[in-house]
């Protein structure tokens, strides 16, 4: 799916000003921003532009070298390692994290989050995530998603190939990374659509594929928080 690009001239100026706090000036801690599967994010691309995407889930690995670290997952084409991430609904509060890993082969990225600025939530819009399943979904399961562009939509699953799924959910640019759920169970993320936005089939990476890759780089046993 193409990345939605937004212009951030005033926002970037605000962020830069936040990094130049003068000595001797007391600064109140910024309020924490609610973030979870379905939240909109902006990944700064340089200059005054950013790509708009959606968070798949927020949680912590329970094993590996990054055990306990608060992270978010999104689509890999949303950004590259080192790029700054903002919460779309709280842009003036500054960066909430940076992309740590991004893989083009499975189209998944990991964002390390600033815990002083983020409050994890399990419910965003019409989606609540209470657990994760690595079992591939198949026909005729109804899957749903929450995206920053099209919100809450559902559709029938056509099939899964073990790595990815294919469904009839409505998705368009900016929905990349959206959590794909069956009830309150996270089963995958949105990555792309075919042919025509909101009409063509949706496809995305299954959670089994995602969790195996996370484990390989020290984020094992990922759990939503």
UniProtKB/TrEMBL annotation:
Keywords: Signal. Residues 1-28 form the signal peptide. The keyword Signal applies. The keyword Signal applies. This is Peptidase S1 family protein.
């Amino acid at each position: 799916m193409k990345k939605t690009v937004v212009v951030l001239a005033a926002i970037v100026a605000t962020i830069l000003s936040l990094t130049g706090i003068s000595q001797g000036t007391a600064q109140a801690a910024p309020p924490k921003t609610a973030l979870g599967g379905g939240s909109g994010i902006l990944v700064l691309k340089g200059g005054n532009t950013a790509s708009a995407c959606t968070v798949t889930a927020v949680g912590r690995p329970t094993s590996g070298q990054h055990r306990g670290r608060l992270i978010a997952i999104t689509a890999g084409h949303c950004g590259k390692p080192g790029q700054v991430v903002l919460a779309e609904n709280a842009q003036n509060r500054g960066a909430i994290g940076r992309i740590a890993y991004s893989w083009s082969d499975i189209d998944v990225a990991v964002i390390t989050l600033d815990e002083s600025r983020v409050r994890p939530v399990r419910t965003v819009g019409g989606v609540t995530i209470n657990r994760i399943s690595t079992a591939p979904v198949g026909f005729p399961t109804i899957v749903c998603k929450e995206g920053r562009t099209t919100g809450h939509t559902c559709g029938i699953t056509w099939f899964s190939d073990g790595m990815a799924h294919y469904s009839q959910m409505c998705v368009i640019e900016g929905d990349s990374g959206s959590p794909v759920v069956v009830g309150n169970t996270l089963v995958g993320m949105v990555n792309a659509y075919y042919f025509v936005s909101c009409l063509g089939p949706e496809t995305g990476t299954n959670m089994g594929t995602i969790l195996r890759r996370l484990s390989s780089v020290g984020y094992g046993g990922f759990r939503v928080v």
